[in-house]
Amino acid sequence: MQQLNPQKDSFAWILQTWAAFILSLSITTTGIMNLPVDNWIKGFMGMGLAFSVGSTFTLAKTTRDLHESKKLTAKIDEAKVEKLLAQHDSLQ
């Protein structure tokens, strides 16, 4: 059975993604705080921002978990096929 090497993200990529996340969240929050509207509108927009960020994390985790479960299922199926082939070869 061949070993699958998981792809590792570089430190630069990880740093860039965190920096982009923090920067975008900070700029959007600052923009909401400086809007010339009532506080309840700012609160509503802040809650919308928080909900959007939270649901984005949930969607990303769910997508990753689904992808990893398919990889695991494929590995199990591959192991079953190799076992059957090994049994077939031993019978001959």
Overview of this protein structure:
This protein is mainly α and 92 residues long. It has one domain (11-91). It has two helices and no strands. It has helices at 11-33, 39-91. Helix 1 packs antiparallel against helix 2 (39-91). It is elongated, with a radius of gyration of 24 Å. The model has no long low-confidence stretch (mean pLDDT 86).
Describe this structure in a few short sentences.
This protein has 92 residues and is mainly alpha-helical. Helices cover 83% and strands 0% of the residues.
Essential attributes:
single chain, 92 residues, mainly alpha, 2 helices, 0% strand
What do the pLDDT scores average to?
A: 86
Assign a percent range to the helix content.
Answer: over 70%
Low-confidence stretches: none
Distance between the termini: 21 Å
Rg value: 24 Å
Biggest sheet details: none
Shape: elongated
The fraction of residues assigned to DSSP E strands is: under 5%
Q: What is the helix/strand order?
A: HH
What is the count of structural domains?
Answer: 1
Please tally the β strands and state the result: 0
Specify the number of helices: 2
Global structural class: mainly alpha
List the helices and strands and how they pair.
Layout: H1 11-33, H2 39-91
